[in-house]
Every structure is written in C-alpha cells, then in structure tokens.
Structure of Hopanoid biosynthesis protein HpnM:
Amino acid sequence: MLKKSATMLLVCALMGITPVLSAAGVTASAASMSATPADKTILANTPEATINALDAALIKSMQGGSRLGYRGRYRIVAPVVQAVFDYPRIASLTLGAYWNKLSPEQQKEFVGVLADYTAATYAARFNSFNGEHFAIVSSETLQSGTEGIFSTFTQRNGKVHRFDYILQKQGGQWRIVNVFADGVSDLALKRAEYTETVQKKGFAALVAHLKAQIAGYAKGSQ
C-alpha cells in the first residue's frame, strides 16, 4: 500500500485547484473545448480503466523500443493520451488567470500543443523495455466526481516509482487532470513555468518554446 501521505498530497493539491475544477469555475470555452474527439474504444467508465489504458500504451511503446523508433512510439501513445487526459481543463488550470485573456483560437492552439507535448514526452522517455510493469495499488474518492488513483511503476532492478493521478468525470468518462510523479505535481510544475513565460515573454513565446521541445524530442530520440 502507498503511504497515507500520498493521499494527503493529492487531497491538498485538489483543495488548491477545486475552485477552478468545479463546474462553476471552469470557463465555458474550456468546458466545451476538445483537443480531439474522445476515442470511445480507449475511454472507459471507471478511473482504473482510464489509467490501465494509459499504462498499456506506455508498455507497448516501451516494448516497441528502437524497432518502432520515436515516430512509431508516438503513434501508439498519442491517441491514448488525447483520450485519457482532459486537456482543456489542464490548459485552463495551467495558465490560471492568463487563460481567460486568450482568444478562443489561442486557447485551442494551447490545448493542442499541450497534448502533443505530452505524447512526445512519453514517446521519448518510454523507449525501451526490460521487464518493467505498472500496477494500480489503490483508489480513493476525493470528492463527488473526483477520484485519486495511486499506482506504481517497477523497474527490473526492483526500484519502484510512484505515479498518482487525479481524475474527474466528464460526459460519463473519467479523464486525468493531474499526475504526481514520485510526489511531484506535473500541474504545479507546468503552472509555475508557463505562467512565468507568458508574463515575461508572451503567449506566442510559450507556444514556440513547447513546439521547440517537441521537435527536440523527435530529433533526439530513436
């Protein structure tokens, strides 16, 4: 079992973003926007099934390794990533107050870049297989319509990493709104970095930065 501190970490993080995640707090554009239509063959009606779909895609990417190359691995993970993450909501949370200052076209562009960046990151990093495996350890209802899934990623040498997820239900489907890797919130990291970039350099610079990172993954990964 994961330590109770993992649960508390998720609850504390949730409390910090609840006003934005609530139905009243999400902007109309974010709530109605979609990076791509959700693939019903990937999405399922339980939080565990959503995480299992992501884990299965990552293992398949790892098993493909250099035989598939970066582009082959990207083709495996990209449609799953699009389906299991709630990118409109993640985008609005990531940019905070800046989100509502963007035009609908800019919001749509940012949602798409975020999804592409996540798929590129997974394709680049989950690039070889040596007996690793994922496992869901437990789940917990954090509030109505919000679930925490606590999972592990075990390497061949026995080292265990923790991946914990906050999921929310939308349109009958459970989708990820935040990931904690070994206790570190991906949403918090992105929000700190991206809002600073927007504040200092502007929205166009942020998008250009993310696209450059995506191109770097494609060029530097085999």
User: Anything to note?
Assistant: Confidence is low (pLDDT under 50) at residues 1-5, 18-32. The helical segments are 4-21, 28-32, 47-84, 87-95, 104-125, 186-201, 203-220. The beta strands are 133-143, 146-154, 160-170, 173-181, 184-185. The longest strand covers residues 133-143.
